[in-house]
Amino acid sequence: MELTERILKGDRRAVARAITLIENDATEKDELLQELHKHTGNAYLIGITGPPGAGKSTLTDQLLFLLRKQGLKIGVIAVDPTSPFTGGAILGDRVRMNDHALDPGVFIRSMGTRGSLGGLAKATKEATRVLDAYGIDVILIETVGVGQSELDIMNVADTTTVVLNPSAGDHIQTMKAGIMEIADLFVINKADLPGADKTEREINNMLDFIHDFDWRPPVLKTTVSQPASFQAMWEACCQHRTFLQENGLWEKRRKQRRQDEIVGIIEDRVQSRIRHWIEKNPSWQQILTEVEAGEKNPYQVADLILEWYNTSNCD
């Protein structure tokens, strides 16, 4: 496939085109991803999540400056919420990271959630495959920032960073049943504001109640006025990566993600084919009428459709 060859040769336009095909669920995307698969698995994926207003985009921007100075090739996938009315998204992260727009060593892509829950767009995981094959060293994935539903990132990133701000006390209380448990690293951003030390104590106190983690997430403070604070964050990420690799958890996590990805592909394809069968089957409306009349129940119908699927593949 010509597009595959262009991506592997470092063609930025080909990468942008490929991600567009993925977002639009184009028919050729499966062939593309199959061809790219053997060239993936080298990039380090860092998830950046947390509540709105925590400064995730600013933190990502600072990391870009830092990592580019180290000569690393960086990809950014910034997920923005999609309007339920227009279907559009603000996609403002590329504007906020405008200083990097012309840097050939940085590829930034914003994408709307398009109705997906969990803080990520449906196409996020597949987009990381394209960037990985393109030769990106570190992929920063900035989630939409919707609070406790931001759990999808743990199934994509190697290291998940939860970003909070000094006034995060209420957020911590609401998140502790969910997002707090997915963090590999806590970052209190805007740490030059009042309350940073208090927030740090609150997070550490909560971590003290958790005794079953192999890796205790470090709690760091960052501020734009102190560039060294972002260096400390990057070093903590690298320490986490080393921890995973030395304890066999790196491959274990990635193997689990591959399994989840395969199951997800199967579910999508089965669902798509069953919906196609429903749309073209003339007896479907009669089946619904029988369910409404109590002559059949939904479980019987579901079993019947699955039986048809297994015997005829719904063709």
Automatic annotation (TrEMBL):
Keywords for this protein: Chaperone, GTP-binding, Hydrolase, Nucleotide-binding
Superkingdom per UniProt: Bacteria
Matches recorded under InterPro entries: GTPase/Isobutyryl-CoA_mutase, GTPase_ArgK, P-loop_NTPase
CDD domains recorded: MMAA-like
GO molecular function term, any single one: GTP binding
A matching Pfam family: MeaB
NCBIfam families the record matches: lao (TIGR00750)
Entry similarity comment: Belongs to the SIMIBI class G3E GTPase family. ArgK/MeaB subfamily.
Name recorded for this polypeptide: Methylmalonyl Co-A mutase-associated GTPase MeaB
Organism, as annotated: Effusibacillus dendaii
